[in-house]
Amino acid sequence: MATIISGKAAAFAQPNVDTDVIMPKRFLKTITREGLADGTFADLRFTESGEKRPEFVLNSADWRDASILVVGDNFGCGSSREHAVWGLRQLGVDAIIGTDFGGIFYDNARKNGLALLIVSKAVRNKLLAFAGDLETLQFNIDIAAKTIKAATQIFEFEMGQTCQTALIEGKDETFDTLKLAHKIRAFESANPNATRLIVNK
Question: Which end of the chain is more exposed for a tag (fewer CB within 10 A), N or C?
C-alpha cells in the first residue's frame, strides 16, 4: 500500500456505530468477500424498498466517491465480524479518522489495509467541519509521517507501529509467519509428534 492516502473526506459524526450497523447480519451469508459493498451501511443508505436515503452522506453526489471517513466516537464497536471491514474496503474506503475504535474492528482493519487514524476530539471536530465543506473536503494523509493535511492545516494522528508497518509494507500475520519459516521447520524436525504447520517457500 502507498504511504500517501489522498481523496475526498465525508463527515459521519454518529457515535457508537457498531459492526451490525456497518454490515447488517443479513449480508453475512457469503463465506467469500465478494458483493459486500452493497451491504455496507445498508440500513442507513437505503430504505426498506431499496431507495437511497438522501440524508445519508455517501448518497450525496458530492461525497459518493469519498475514500476517507471522519467518524463519531467508538466507531466499529460490537461484534467481531470481519465482513464490516471487507465491505468498507469494497465500498472504496481507504481510511477512517476518529477518536477511538472497537478493538477487534481495529485489528481487522489492520489485516485488510484499512487505515484507522486516532486523533483528539478537538482535531476530529475540526476535520468533521472540513469534510462537510466542499471547499475543504480533500484530505491528504501521510502514513509514514502520521499527518493529515486538510485545507491549509496539518494535524498529527496516532497509530501503533505494527499497524503503520502493515499499511506501508502491505503485510499481515501471514507474512510475519513466513519470516520465521526456518524456525518453524527446525521446531517440527525436533518435535516430530507436534502438529505440523506447512510452510512452502
Answer: C
Q: Which helix (H) or strand (E) holds 69?
A: strand 68-71
Q: Which residue's C-alpha cell is 477512517?
A: 96
Residue (of 168, 7, 161, 9) closest to 98 by Cα position: 9
> What is the domain partition of the chain in residue ranges?
4-170, 171-201
Residue type at 70 in one-letter notation: V
CB neighbours of residue 167 within 10 Å: 24
Tally of residues, the chain: 201
Q: pLDDT tens for residues 106-163?
A: 999 999 999 999 999 999 999 999 999 999 999 999 999 999 999 999 999 999 999 9
CA–CA gap between residue 10 and residue 134 (Å, rounded)? 10
Each residue of 11-48: pLDDT tens digit? 999 999 999 999 999 988 766 777 899 999 999 999 99
Three-state DSSP state, 176: helix
Of 45, 105, 95, the C-alpha closest to 74 is 105
Nearest to 132 by CA among 150, 153, 152, 108: 150
- How would residue 83 be classed by pLDDT, with cut points 50, 70 and 90? very high
For domain 4-170, give the CATH number. Answer: 3.20.19.10
Report the phi/psi class of residue 157: left, alpha or beta, with left for phi > 0 and alpha for psi in -120 to 50. beta
